[in-house]
Amino acid sequence: MGSAQPVRGWVSQDYGQRRPAPSVVWSVRARLPLRVVTLLLPAPSPELTPPHVELLTGPDEMPAGVVLGGRERIVFAGDEFLVS
Questions:
Q1: Which residues contact 2 (CB under 8 A, 6 or more apart)?
Q2: Per-residue pLDDT averaged across 55-65, rounded?
Q3: DSSP 8-state symbol, 26
Q4: CA torsion angle 63 53 27 83 (round to 10)
């Protein structure tokens, strides 16, 4: 959330107004190679239930994509991703 020193983590709807913004900070110690998957799903209301998310793994057991809600598939292809 918002911090005064240093100034960060705020959102402003108008000049001179600010409120704390949600933020995520994480760290990991792991052996390389490492693939990190971060999924942000904006929702029109915080009361909505997020969809079920299933991780797809490749032959090397590394993350290869995700399936959202059992329907939409996002597959990682190098530095790109494919949606089907």
A1: 8, 9, 10, 18, 19, 20, 21
A2: 88
A3: -
A4: 50
